Every structure is written in structure tokens, then in C-alpha cells.
Amino acid sequence: MHFSVPSPSRRLAVLLFAILAVLPLAAACGGDDDDSGGEPSPTTTLDGATPTGPQSEHGQLIARARVPLELAEGTSIGKADAPIVIEAYEDFGCPHCLHFTAVIEPKLMDDYIARGKVRLVYRYLPLQQATAAAALGAQCAAEQNRFWEYHAALFTAQAEASNKTGPLMSVAFAPAGLVETATTLKLDLPAFDACLQGTSAIEAVQEDLRQAQALGLRGTPSFVVNGNVLTGSPENYDDWKKYLDALLK
Question: Where are the domains of the chain?
């Protein structure tokens, strides 16, 4: 069956502007959340993948990560009664968020989330128009309970763009790129298309942005643990482990 890729319509542009209109002032990802990458090589696909899998180091780490999808619900993963809830405010184009996703998040999945100790909730904090579009795509995947696979694909696309083994993020995160990712993941494409052109995803992203603004968050990634903003976030897994183990005592 042929499926038509939605064009970057004026309506979508208006929705993206509505997202950006509620961004916190001076939000940033360490000052380096720019669109990076090069033209795709002949063997790369729109979602940044290649016939042999991701070529970037971060992309390969994401591909190898074990994710307990049986514990996933929307943008949350982990048991509902987990004693620790981590809300991660992230941008799919932020290199620091990519590092967290590729290096730290898999270990949290193994040691805490899969064991019922932590529930991780992804919150949208897009900092530019291209990543606002990616947030909409991720939320549309979440509405099919496929957020975590889509989240991995988007961060892999960032990694491949930065490694110059995939398209620019502005290409991967454009409507056609978002649909290509949905196609690769075998999502319900008519439902995904309707979501991209509807209002439910924009409302979900805007709500996260309002919460980020209310919390005074100024950059990505930012973390809220059991309702408290985490200042001076741990920079490596050992620091996260010490912090979480102390909370669990």
C-alpha cells in the first residue's frame, strides 16, 4: 500500500511556532545543540541507519542497550510503584542528552529500572524548531506505546548526523524523516500521520514545556527526582549510582 508522506505544511509550522513560543528564555544544551552532520553517504537511510547498523559510537551503544519494554507506558518506563521517579527533560538534538541516552541510561535500565527501583519519565524540552518537530514525532509514537523505540531512533539519528554517517538532523527530523522512522519501526502509519497533523501531540509537548518553565529549567538535560529539581546533575554513571543508592537506603 502506498503511503503519502505529509509535507511540511503551514499548519505544522504554526504548531511548531506554538511550541517554541513557550520555551524558557536562555534555554540551551551546553551551548552546542546546533544542527550538525553531513550529507548522507550512498548507503545511509533517512533515519541515520545503515545496512550494518549505526556507525557512530553513541549509535552503537544505543543499538546494544537492553530496554525493558514490558515496563513501558507512553513516555514512562519502569514499575508504577518504583520508589524513585526520574523525570528527564531532554531535547533530541542535544549532545549532552545523547550522551545520557547512550552511556548512562542503559545502565540505569539494567540496574534500577528493570529491577523496579526507578521509573524514568521522558519530558519534552525542545530548544529549536527541528527538535520541536522531533518531539511531536516521538509523542505520536508514544500514543502507540512505541515511544522508547522511537526515542532510540531519534537519538541515533543525532549521533549519525554528528558522525557524518547520516543525514543532517534538519533532514532526519523533518516530517518525511519522522515518517520514515515510523515506517522502519512498523508503526501504524495512518494513525501516526493523523497524530502529526492533529493537536494531541502539540498539547503534550506544550504541557512539558510549561512544567519546565514553572520549574525554572534552563537547559537540557535537566532532571527532576521525586518532584525535586536536581541541581548539579551527576555527570557519569558512578555518580548516578551513588546518588540513587543513597535515596534507596
Answer: 18-28+45-248
Mean of the per-residue pLDDT values of the chain? 86
| pLDDT digits 0-9 by tens, 203-247 | 999 999 999 999 999 899 999 999 999 988 898 999 999 999 999
Q: Which is more confident, 235 or 43?
A: 235
- Whose CA is closest to 29, among 95, 116, 128, 122? 95
Residues 6+ apart with CB under 8 A from 34: none
- CATH code at 18-28+45-248: 3.40.30.10
Q: For the beta carbon of residue 197, count every other beta carbon within 10 angstroms.
A: 16
pLDDT of 17? 61
